[in-house]
Amino acid sequence: STMASRLVPKVISKQGGSPCKEKHVALLSPVGKIEISGCEAGVHEIKLPKMSVLPSGAESSVACEVCEGAEELPEPLQQCTAWLRAYFCEPATTGSLPVPAFHHPLLQRDSFTRQVLWTLLNDVKFGEAISYKQLADLAGNSRAARAVGGAMRSNPIPILIPCHRVIRSSGDTGNYGGGHLLKEWLLSHEKLQKEKL
């Protein structure tokens, strides 16, 4: 699989170098507050709100604005907030926006998890859904559906790496870090927006 690994941007962390200067930004979205952390080298993590109830009438009419930490953001965080804002408010434009660099240890080590996350990022588009097994197939190991579940659970960059689009073969939505309500909201948001286009 040398071909596959060459497609993945290599992130070199400076050995013994200074730790990242981590910056934080929060985005007030239709589904609540999304917190993003990262540095000059890339996005570290996107933290989703835990939702127990869905916002009523959660249409994309709800603005998506940076609510804290907007000043002096490193480029990956600017790109990340721009991408998320587009995702909620103008999904048709996400395809033309740059995907920020990622700088999370999980995405720097060569592993099946990373392979799965990159495959998901590159191949499963807005408004699509895929089963754990299909994703395992795409990532090059059809017998690894369970490992795909593990990869989804450890995804540090949800929404951008769209683990909410991975569902059970039965059509059941399956688990999600942000809770199944949020997963269902994201999927129906994508479906609605796609029908509009």
Automatic annotation (TrEMBL):
Q: Which cofactor does it need?
A: Zn(2+)
What residue stretches are annotated with the Methylated-DNA-[protein]-cysteine S-methyltransferase DNA binding domain?
Answer: 114-191
InterPro entries in the cross-refs: MethylDNA_cys_MeTrfase_AS, MethylDNA_cys_MeTrfase_DNA-bd, MethylDNA_cys_MeTrfase_DNAb, MethylG_MeTrfase_N, MGMT_N_sf, WH-like_DNA-bd_sf
Keywords tagged on the record: DNA damage, DNA repair, DNA-binding, Metal-binding, Methyltransferase, Nucleus, Phosphoprotein, Transferase, Zinc
Q: Main location per UniProt?
A: nucleus
What superkingdom does the record give? Eukaryota
- Subcellular location as annotated: Nucleus
> One Pfam match, by short name?
DNA_binding_1
One GO BP annotation here? Answer: methylation
What cellular-component terms does GO give this entry?
Answer: nucleoplasm
This enzyme catalyses: a 4-O-methyl-thymidine in DNA + L-cysteinyl-[protein] = a thymidine in DNA + S-methyl-L-cysteinyl-[protein]; a 6-O-methyl-2'-deoxyguanosine in DNA + L-cysteinyl-[protein] = S-methyl-L-cysteinyl-[protein] + a 2'-deoxyguanosine in DNA
Give the EC number. Answer: 2.1.1.63
GO terms (molecular function) for this protein are: DNA binding; metal ion binding; methylated-DNA-[protein]-cysteine S-methyltransferase activity
Q: What range(s) does the Methylguanine DNA methyltransferase ribonuclease-like domain occupy? A: 29-100
Q: What does this protein do?
A: Involved in the cellular defense against the biological effects of O6-methylguanine (O6-MeG) and O4-methylthymine (O4-MeT) in DNA. Repairs the methylated nucleobase in DNA by stoichiometrically transferring the methyl group to a cysteine residue in the enzyme. This is a suicide reaction: the enzyme is irreversibly inactivated.
NCBIfam families assigned: ogt (TIGR00589)
Name the protein family.
Belongs to the MGMT family.
Protein name according to UniProt: Methylated-DNA--protein-cysteine methyltransferase
The lineage, from the top, is: Eukaryota, Metazoa, Chordata, Craniata, Vertebrata
